[in-house]
Every structure is written in structure tokens, then in C-alpha cells.
Amino acid sequence: MKFFVDTADIAEIRDLAATGLVDGVTTNPSLVAKSGRKFLDVVKEICEVIPGPVSAEVAAVDHATMLGEGRKLAKIAHNVVVKVPLTPDGLKTCKALRAEGTKVNVTLCFSPAQAILAAKAGASYVSPFVGRLDDVGVDGMGLIGDIVQIYDSYPEFETEVLVASVRHPMHVVVAGKLGADVVTLPPPVLRQMFNHPLTDMGLAAFLADWAKTGQSIV
Ligand code: G3P
After folding, report:
1. Catalytic residue among 83, 95, 103, 177
2. Could you report the per-residue pLDDT of 58-98, keeping only the tens digit for each?
3. Cα of 186 vs its chain's centroid, Å
4. Most buried of the four, 66, 69, 84, 145, by CB within 10 Å?
């Protein structure tokens, strides 16, 4: 399972990259707006910090403009993945960019039918938004299970399932049980994954007992 970090906050990216657990980054227009930074500058800086895939989303909705934007984003760095929405124009752009050798992340996926279209368009990644489905009473992780099951039936589908809109560690656990390829994690969720009270209690007891020995290792 690959861990991408879902943020455009370069300080957070640097901090979490230091854990050695980060395989890539995903951004979107909302995350870029939250960063307060110029889009092209922050994408360039993220690509310098993280050698893995960095998703940068187009802002247009028509194919011609999306294609031009995608080509510009792809030129920023070799590890840029162009993100397009799961719309007819978005998938047309996906197919065109893939034909040029550019990796594409098809985002805003909310149904198995949409995920099939993304795979047929040659998407490198499809991003089902599990948290937003949960928010409206639909089983977001059920969608992941459906997509994984469908994709497993077609070896010609090269699209990786990138679980997005993750809200808590259980989304990650279930994604692992289902065999999703990637999860993209808001920084707080990644940090939450470390936490367990029994770990804290056990470490405190080890340290207390070690202190009683009066020994040191170095
Ligand atoms: O990568 C997509 C993600 O940023 C969306 O998350 O919490 O806005 O549904 P959220």
C-alpha cells in the first residue's frame, strides 16, 4: 500500500516526508487555495521535496484548455501527475495526456461505473472520495471494494485505486483489507495512525523498569 499525503502545505509535507513513510502527494484546487501559495510555485517545491508522484489538478473544464493546462503542469517536474475531473472532457484529456506519456489521476469518482470509465481512459490513478460518500450516508469503502473487484477482472486495466477523502485511520485499515493500491492521507490522519494508549502505557513501563536497572546501552 502506498501512502500519499493529501495537502499543499509544504511544511507538513517536509515534516511527514521525514518519517520515510510518504510515497507521494495529492493536491487539489481547494488545498492549493488553503496554502495561500502560487499554484505553480508550490507544485514545483513539492516535487523537489517528494520524489514520488505529485498530483496537480487542472482548473479548466473543457478538453482543449484542460489539455493545455495538463501539458504545462507536466513540464514542472518529471514526477507531476496531472489530475482531471471524472467528466467526459476530463477523460478525453486523460486519454490524450496518457498517449503523450503523462501520468493522470482521475478525481471526483463516486461510483463503480465512473471507475470503469477512468480505467478505460487509461488513468494511472482513480480517486474515489470515500469520506464524501460517507458524509451522505453511502458506504464509501463499499465503493472501493466494488472497484477493486471490477479492476481485478481485467488485467488490461492499469489504473491504481487511490483512496481519497480519507477521514480516519479505519478508512486506511479497510482500504488495506480490500487491496487498494494507494491511500492519500490528510496529515492529521497519518499522525493518528501511530496512536494507541497501550503503546504509550507499555513504553512508559519499559522505560521505568529500564531506569531501575541503572544501566545504559551507549
Ligand atoms: O484528495 C481529495 C481530498 O482532498 C478530498 O477530501 O475531505 O475534502 O472530502 P475532502
Report:
1. 83
2. 999 999 999 999 999 999 999 999 999 999 999 999 999 99
3. 9
4. 84
Cell of 14: 517536509
For residue range 130-157, list pLDDT tens digits in order.
Answer: 999 999 999 999 999 999 999 999 999 9
Average pLDDT, the chain: 98
Buried b (16+ CB within 10 A) or exposed e, 61-91: eebeebbebbeebbebbebbbbbbbbbebbb
Domains of the chain: 2-213 (3.20.20.70)
Report how far ligand 1's centroid is from the alpha carbon of 165 (Å): 4
95 class by beta-carbon count within 10 Å (0-12 exposed, 13-18 middle, 19+ buried): middle
Would you say 17 and 50 are in contact if contact means Cβ atoms under 8 Å apart? yes
98 closest CA partner among 158, 18, 41, 169: 158
pLDDT band (50, 70, 90) for residue 162: very high
Amino acid letter for position 67: L
Which ligand 1 atom is nearest residue 132's CA? 9
- Cβ atoms of 59 and 29 within 8 Å: the answer is yes
- Residue 24 buriedness (CB in 10 A; 0-12 / 13-18 / 19+): buried
- Is 83 catalytic? The answer is yes
